[in-house]
């Protein structure tokens, strides 16, 4: 379903040099991607529950690392509460688009789509797509970027080869597959269903086996104090996470 409403992206953007977020004065639209991303992160449209998580999740650094560009069409796998959906929608702007790919088991729950639909009503460039399985996914168009944060380990509990093949198929040549998740180094895939983490080396092996090329790694979310022996929900602190940027060859 496509829910169109008032688009906040672009029209309310602010740079670091701008005055108050509530200023009635016209704002100067940014030109660099750094400015677009910063404007999306500091946007007053984001709820306090999201901004309270920014210190741990470092969204500005992560979005910049991912390679998102103005005008991109992005497929976001399992957006959950929409933490990144809001940021990505404003970053790509009115000429871009977000496919919010919601798993069908979520949609089948009473009110399961209420949250993501509310976000779609807030922006004009989000289309909510209910998917039976990411392994059989077919989108209306090839996208510029696939995005998954903190849920690749769940996908790895199923037919991950088919999922990665589906991402490859629905991504344009030269497009990006961005993966961020909780780290369990040296464990392969043995911790995916128990500790809800995954070995980044296993992700690299699986994604490159689908035909992607690993382009870059980021340690901006690395936490050496994490012993990797508990679920992120049970760990008393910020879990150690990795971020990987893959590219489909031209």
TrEMBL record:
<dbReference type="InterPro" id="IPR016980">
    <property type="entry name" value="S-AdoMet-dep_MeTrfase_Alr7345"/>
</dbReference>
<keyword id="KW-0489">Methyltransferase</keyword>
<dbReference type="GO" id="GO:0008168">
    <property type="term" value="F:methyltransferase activity"/>
</dbReference>
<dbReference type="GO" id="GO:0032259">
    <property type="term" value="P:methylation"/>
</dbReference>
<keyword id="KW-0808">Transferase</keyword>
<protein>
    <submittedName>
        <fullName>Methyltransferase</fullName>
    </submittedName>
</protein>
<feature type="signal peptide">
    <location>
        <begin position="1"/>
        <end position="16"/>
    </location>
</feature>
<dbReference type="InterPro" id="IPR029063">
    <property type="entry name" value="SAM-dependent_MTases_sf"/>
</dbReference>
<keyword id="KW-0732">Signal</keyword>
């Amino acid at each position: 379903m496509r829910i169109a409403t008032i688009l906040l992206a672009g029209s309310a953007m602010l740079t670091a040099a701008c005055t108050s977020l509530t200023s009635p004065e016209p704002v100067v639209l940014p030109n660099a991607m750094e400015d677009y991303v910063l404007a999306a992160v500091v946007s007053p449209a984001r709820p306090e529950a999201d901004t309270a998580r920014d210190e741990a999740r470092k969204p500005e650094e992560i979005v910049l690392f991912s390679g998102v560009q103005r005008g991109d069409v992005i497929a976001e796998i399992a957006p959950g509460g929409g933490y990144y959906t809001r940021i990505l929608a404003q970053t790509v702007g009115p000429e871009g688009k977000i496919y919010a790919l919601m798993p069908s088991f979520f949609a089948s729950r009473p009110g399961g789509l209420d949250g993501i639909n509310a976000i779609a009503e807030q922006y004009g460039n989000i289309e909510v797509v209910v998917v039976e399985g990411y392994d059989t996914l077919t989108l209306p168009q090839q996208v510029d970027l696939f995005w998954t944060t903190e849920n690749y380990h769940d996908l790895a509990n199923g037919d991950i080869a088919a999922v990665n093949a589906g991402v490859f198929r629905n991504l344009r040549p030269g497009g990006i597959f961005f993966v961020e998740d909780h780290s369990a180094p040296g464990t392969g895939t043995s911790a995916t269903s128990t500790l809800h983490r995954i070995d980044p080396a296993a992700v690299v092996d699986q994604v490159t086996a689908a035909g992607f090329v690993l382009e870059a790694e980021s340690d901006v979310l690395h936490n050496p104090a994490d012993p990797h022996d508990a679920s992120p929900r049970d760990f008393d602190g910020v879990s150690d996470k990795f971020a990987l940027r893959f590219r489909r060859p031209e």
